[in-house]
Design goal:
Keywords: ATP-binding, Cytoplasm, Lyase, NAD, NADP, Nucleotide-binding, Phosphoprotein
CATH architecture: 3-Layer(aba) Sandwich
Subcellular location: Cytoplasm
Number of strands: 9
Largest sheet: 9 strands, mixed
Shape: globular
Helix content: 40-55%
Family: Belongs to the NnrD/CARKD family.
Structural class: alpha/beta
Distance between the termini: 22 Å
CATH superfamily: Ribokinase
CATH topology: UDP-N-acetylmuramoyl-L-alanine:D-glutamate ligase
Oligomer: single chain
Pfam family, one: Carb_kinase
Protein name: ATP-dependent (S)-NAD(P)H-hydrate dehydratase
């Protein structure tokens, strides 16, 4: 790895909490993934499991009832809440409520928003789909999370919300967007900065992501690609760690879950639940969290590709999360057990 990447990883490492006996459940991160519909159950699972395997204490999935049954069958380790609803016309499930409780976005969101006070970070988008009721519900939850100052990671179909309503996240420096190349292009066109971005691309490798971040008022953008470019429009990082060469679907879900866990550790760092030394500034922690999540994901991809080659699938990255963490941030515990943490 490059010297700059090694230096960045050392800074990210300062955010990682030690495992101390005094900690109690929940202090090292409570993350919820909002997504998961009848057609898309894998994405929220991969995101939530990446968060859990990386070291988050509590990983939730908030999804539709039809997705909940399936996701629960994947793992008993996740807490799955069937609180989302899709439009009646888009599902084979009958609508049994005549009160609008299952067809009105305000009423659906009212069941989800009270959960926010028990969470540290939201991931919105994996497996969400484009159903209007699901999208409208997420918009309401995003506003409520922003009002509470809650960090959030938006990916996949949640980025459609940003295209349609950029003010949902504009200027919110605790929001992280993780677009792929197609989603990045859609965002720049929706914001009317595509020509500016194309012109910026002539200047430098990082100018495109900086232009989009500025257009959104300082939101953190993780532009996925051969190298991940991360910027809030003022500070830019390049993650140049080697990744795998298989582009199977679902790998971005490991990224969202990993970033979310680092954002959960950001809160633990700011709360001072261990002796941190406070060498990191609060304003740099979101960028460091995005860098850490990107680095973990690329290392997972490299490790999985080395084992599976062309047959690599998203679940193979999940299996490599702990090894990736050990390779980049791990150390031997000081309790004499010899355990690597």
């Amino acid at each position: 790895m490059s010297a700059s990447t090694r230096e960045m990883l050392a800074r990210v490492r300062q955010m990682v909490p030690p495992l101390l006996e005094k900690f109690h459940k929940g202090q090292l991160g409570r993350v919820a993934v909002i997504g998961g519909s009848e057609d898309y159950t894998g994405a929220p699972y991969f995101s939530a499991m990446a968060s859990a395997r990386l070291g988050c204490d509590m990983s939730h999935v908030i999804c539709t009832p039809s997705a909940a049954t399936v996701i629960k069958s994947y793992s008993p380790n996740l807490m799955v809440h069937p609180l989302m609803r899709s439009s009646p016309s888009s599902t084979s499930a009958p609508v049994t409520s005549s009160s609008g409780a299952d067809t009105d976005a305000q009423q659906i969101a009212a069941r989800i928003v009270p959960m926010l006070d028990r969470l540290h970070v939201l991931v919105i988008g994996p497996g969400l789909g484009r159903d209007p009721l699901m999208q409208d519900t997420c918009a309401l939850v995003i506003r409520a999370a922003r009002d509470r100052g809650m960090p959030m990671v938006l990916d996949a179909d949640a980025l459609l919300l940003v295209q349609r309503e950029p003010d949902l996240v504009r200027g919110y420096r605790l929001a992280v967007l993780t677009p792929n190349v197609v989603e990045f292009g859609r965002l720049t066109r929706a914001l009317g900065v595509d020509e500016q971005v194309r012109a910026a691309a002539q200047q430098s490798e990082t100018a495109k992501v900086e232009a989009l971040a500025k257009a959104l008022g300082g939101v953190m953008i993780v532009q996925k690609g051969p190298k991940d470019q991360i910027s809030d429009g003022k500070v830019t990082f390049t993650v140049d760690l080697e990744g795998g060469r298989k582009r199977s679907g679902g790998q971005g879900d490991t990224l969202t879950g990993s970033i979310a866990t680092f954002l959960g550790w950001r809160k633990a760092y700011l709360d001072g639940i261990w002796e941190t030394g406070k060498q990191l500034k609060e304003e740099e922690l979101v960028g460091l969290a995005a860098f850490g999540g990107s680095a973990i994901t690329r290392e997972c991809s490299r490790l999985a590709f080395a084992k599976k080659g062309r047959s690599l699938q998203a679940s193979d990255l999940t299996d490599e999360v702990h090894t990736a963490f050990l390779n980049l941030f791990g150390e031997v515990g000081e309790d004499g057990s010899g355990a690597r943490l």
